[in-house]
Request: fold
Amino acid sequence: MSTTPMLRLERVTGGYGPVTVLHGLDLEVAEGEVAVILGANGAGKTTTLRAICGILDKVHGDVFFDGSAITKRSTQAIARSGIALVPQGRGTFGDLSVDDNLRLGAMTRKDKGIAADLDRWYDVFPRLSERRSQAAGSMSGGEQQMLAIARALMSRPRLLLLDEPSLGLAPLITKDLFERLGEINRTEGLTMLVVEQNASLALAIANRGYVLETGNIVASGPAASLAADEGVRKAYLGF
Amino acid sequence: MTDTTMNTEAAIGTPDPSGTTGISWLRVVVGVVLAVVALWLPFNYNPDTNTLFAQVFYLAIAAMGLNLLTGFNGQVSIGHGAFFGVGAFTTAILTVEQGWPIEATIPVAAVLAAVVGVVVGFPALRVKGLYLALITLGLAVLFPRVTGKIVKGPGGVALLQPSRNEVSSYWPDLLEDDQYRYFVCLAIMVLLFWAASNLMRSRAGRAMIAVRDQEVAASTVGVNVAGVKIASFALSAAYAGVAGSLSVMVDRVADATNPLIYFQRSIEFLIAVVIGGAATISGPLLGAAFLVFVRKRFEDTEALAPALLGGSLMVIIYVLPDGLIGGYRRLVARFRRPGPSAPDRSPEPPRPPTPVADQTPA
Amino acid sequence: MQLFIDQVLNGVNIGVIYASVALALVLIYRTTGLLNFAQGELALFSTFITWWFAVEQDVPIWGALLISFVLSFIGGALIERILIRPVEGAHSPLNVVIVTLGMFLAVNALAQLIFIKPGQEALQMPDLFPSGDLAFGIRKSTVGFAVVLIVECVVLWLLLQKTKLGLALRGVASNPESSRLVGINTGNMLMVGWALAAGIGAIAGSLAATRGSGFDSSLMQQILVYSFAAAALGGFDSPLGAVVGGLVVGIADSLTIQYVDALDGIELVVPFVLILVVLLVRPNGLFGRTIVERV
Reply:
């Protein structure tokens, strides 16, 4: 890459308590692209996203966003700088209404466009529009996933992190979800870093892919060539 | 509960390294010195000061009771004042109304308090943490009112005062009343601390700690969690009951006229445990000494003592989360002396609370 | 019948105070997950501040109450920041009990040291509402108390439901981690929660002090037990539940005193049994949302 990548991780290590999950990770996401992290359970995919967002307690190494180090910043400061995470399990505000959830997504914004954005995402996700005043926790998994993504988009992020968006969703819904994500990337130019177990779906919308195994990147490259690489596919991706 | 966990590890988790001659020799010397001091004290201070010492001893017993439950078993109680009160009124009623010798009432007080403890222990199986604290708080607030309804002393109020001869010494030629009470409290305290120390090194004691640290894991290895919890409550309440019983002997009053007196007692026990060091053996005694000293030192200005005690309770969480004993242990560990953890092992009376003596008008 | 109505009205009068203190307890529980055993004593201190401005400084009573509210609001925020922050999230009930009981003792004692002159017995709080009946045996003060509670509820509702700050507060209560992920400074929200609770406590304590023939440093201790019962009944995390619970407990207490002779002098059995039954049988109360146990 000739230009500075939007997100860069250098030798990032981290974990939970005494357990180290990440062992010196290097990773880049360029502006406007969709990058995907693939890997088995326990490889450290979720931990990587948590390290970026500052939720992990002890992170060593450097995380750069737009060229400035954000490793030591608090979670809320990182969120304010333009990174939005759609956490695994969705992290919705279960007892608050759909509308409140979306407004919470826009917490950091001070501009006048919040109401317009609300309408816009209600257009994109009509199911949410039907359930505006319903408690988020009472909706189906797929609806909550839509809500979590819409909430993240409400913050007008520069970088969207998605943690296993397909988890617990029916295959058709997952397919639909990824098509919408691809569309948002194309129309908005929104940069995304997606963690996913469903490799074929994720690689289909991605520009770049990383394969993670026990806290290390074991393969990386353009999404198309990763998907085409017989060895990588057999060893890590399982399709 | 991580703080106390660390504590216990040091207190009882490791086997006694006293096989080495040097350490046990030192321990014997410390023990003998303490014993001599304890025997010497009451003959060299005035009755008022001896009464203060006796108060330290019975408060230490109650604090040890709370410590068994909260420190070692992890159940938080603000209701121990009520158990203390059960003991106090049992003794006062039996002495004043039934004419029992006061010493004979102590076991009865222990048993009755334990029974109440079991009754409280059952809801504690379902309600934990802060909610258990809330229920036990209610118990402490309720106790004087219920007692006031049942017990009517002279004058129609819930106040029973044994007469002087009901708490007097059996050997007036040998021991003055205050000295006698000092020795009774001291002996019972030594006995109960020794029992607690042995218990916590036994299988039953390890079960109590296991329930505190890893309740689920404890149940999977065959610990009867419910049984241990209720037994802890009963034992803990019995200690508080004995303390209440002794308080009638020392202070010659069982009082339920002030509706908050037993709630305040509960807080006192908590102070003694926390400041001395939760989940240690000698912590409650040090804490009780601190408590009595502060109360005595600032008795002229009402409200100053509670302000200081409340303040120290808050500060200790940040400064010495494991209490005086924990702080002492860390200090010793820092100098890397495999030194005597004498205050912990020896159930003998510790250093005399000299500051108390200093401040007391002779 | 008139006697019954009188007792119900009397229960509403005291129930307003229980409801307010319960509201304060709930605000703190929702944001920090703690039961604040010192809530009553903090309210007591605020009450002394109101009294000091009203009586010693001759500020009109409503002005004094306003000053007390503002000072308490600030004080609550400082207390959270300095004293409570270190024990938050430690999930050690013992530490929470120690700090809040330490505060209980210290604040009560400080209030006495600062405001009560040696030998002084009960203090007189100027009336907030005129004495006498409005109509049908309804005291003006009861109506006034009820209006205060309604105003509190409406303001709180508007704050929580209609403002961005309120949205953030509800977000933190619902899901702290997600709140940080959307950029909310959760620490500040906890401060706001404590500040609001202390402010509401100031109102509750000042109202309580105008009941009866004077007040002293034990004003809030019994009230706290009733308020815990009210909060438990309502479910600990529901502001609406706290208000309903407060009124129910107040009326139940008032009727008990009138009609159940066996409980004469031990009316506290009522809230105690209520707490016990609610925690054992229905831990999330009438309006609560989550399971109560967090060990």
About this structure: The beta strands of chain B are 159-160, 254-255. Chain B is about 70% helix and 0% strand.
